[in-house]
Amino acid sequence: MTSDPPTRTMSVPGGGSGGRKVTTFDLGAMKSRGEKIVAITAYDALFASLVDAAGVDLILVGDSLASVLCGEESTLAATVEQMTYHGRIVVRGTSRAFVVVDMPFLSYQVSVEEAVRNAGNILKQTGAGAVKLEGGFDVLDAVRAIVRAGVPVMGHLGFTPQSVHALGGHRIQGRDEEAVSRLVEEAAALEEAGVFSIVLELMPTVAARRVTEAISVPTVGIGAGPECDGQVLVLHDMLGLNEGFSPRFLKRYAELGAAVRDAVGRYAGEVREGLYPDASHGYEAGGSDGDGG
Ligand code: KIV
Q1: pLDDT by residue (tens digit) across 65-78?
Q2: Per-residue pLDDT at 36
Q3: Which residue from 62, 50, 132 is spatially nearest to 94, judged by alpha carbons?
Q4: Please, what is the Cα angle at 209 between 206 and 212, to 5 degrees?
Q5: Mean pLDDT score of the chain, rounded to an integer?
Q6: How far apart are the C-alpha atoms of 123 and 132, rounded to whole Å?
Q7: Residues tagged active-site
Q8: Largest CB tally within 10 Å, which of 50, 131, 172, 210?
Q9: What burial class does residue 269 get, using C-beta atoms within 10 Å of its C-beta: 0-12 exposed, 13-18 middle, 19+ buried?
Q10: How confident is the model at residue 291 (pLDDT cuts 50, 70, 90)?
């Protein structure tokens, strides 16, 4: 009997950090204890399993997938169907971290009823723990109604990418006293509406500190300095896969873009020169040994 060629199955190592699943209560308790919350984006089961095993507390299935994965100019193109699909496969690869799925543009702005239905369906169909939506005073009714329906909500203030055109591009928010006061008031209103945490994006350190001190739910910063209760980065950016993107706030912890180019370039060279595959990569006729990789 000849062995079948190997099937290409993905190895999901699962949460190496051990312990039970992180909850919204754990995240709140981390703020009280002064422990930093570590958050990162993931869009699929393989990367989710890797970042989960590395011990992150929160995985965000960001609508940034529209630009990072799909090459769109902004996050505006993301759909509920996409977020649901990617949310589901991220949850499949996650053992310990708390998973939050972004609500895409127009899925919560049109009416409170639609917002609740979309948030509920995202939670129901992905198995995630919460949804995130962008905005302050304008989204309070939607936040209240979604929370009332039993869906935990994460807020998002400062630079809100779904409003990139209204904000005049990727601009730092909260630069003057009036803008900082508004951020503080919006954060307090979001807390009152029931959010369990708020992402603070692209704002001066002092603005993020003022918001963080003003509310009792944890803030998670990106481009908001070191004084938030936690940090979040887009995985592909910090791994150096998204090489064209290098804002000041970003720290790259690897150069995987270069590593991929190098590995694929060497593979291409070896195939063209007849060096790969060689005899050691072939199968014997009549053998019965399996090869699952
Ligand atoms: O979509 C996303 O990845 C985000 C993060 C930048 C916070 O919202």
Answers
A1: 999 999 999 999 99
A2: 98
A3: 50
A4: 155
A5: 93
A6: 11
A7: 201
A8: 131
A9: exposed
A10: confident
**Contact 102 CB / ligand 1 (< 6 Å):** yes
* Closest listed residue to residue 179, CA positions, set 200, 198, 162: 200
The domain segmentation of the chain, as residue ranges, is 24-257
Residues 131-152 have a mean pLDDT of 98
Going from the Cα of 265 to the center of ligand 1, the distance in angstroms, rounded, reads 32
Q: Which amino acid residue places its CA nearest to atom 3 of ligand 1?
A: 62
Q: Which fold has domain 24-257?
A: TIM Barrel (3.20.20)
Burial of 137 (0-12, 13-18, 19+ CB in 10 A): exposed
Supply 215's token pair.
């509310």
Residue 25's nearest CA partner among 153, 194, 196 is: 196
Q: Does the CB atom of residue 84 touch ligand 1 within 6 A?
A: no
Would the CB of 186 count as within 6 Å of ligand 1?
no
Site to probe by mutation for ligand 1, drawn from 40, 222, 228, 245 as the one with most ligand atoms within 8 Å of Cβ, is 222
Closest protein CA for atom 6 of ligand 1: 234
Please indicate whether residue 142, judged by its CB atom, sits closer than 6 Å to ligand 1: no
Is there an atom of ligand 1 within 6 Å of 41 CB?
A: yes
Please give the average per-residue pLDDT across 56-64, as a whole number.
98
pTM above 0.85, yes or no: yes
- Name the region of 109 (left: φ>0; alpha: ψ -120 to 50; beta: rest): alpha
For atom 8 of ligand 1, the residue with the nearest CA is 62
Ligand 1 near 155 CB (within 6 A): no
Rounded distance from Cα 101 to ligand 1 centre (Å) = 10
**What's the residue count for the chain?**
293
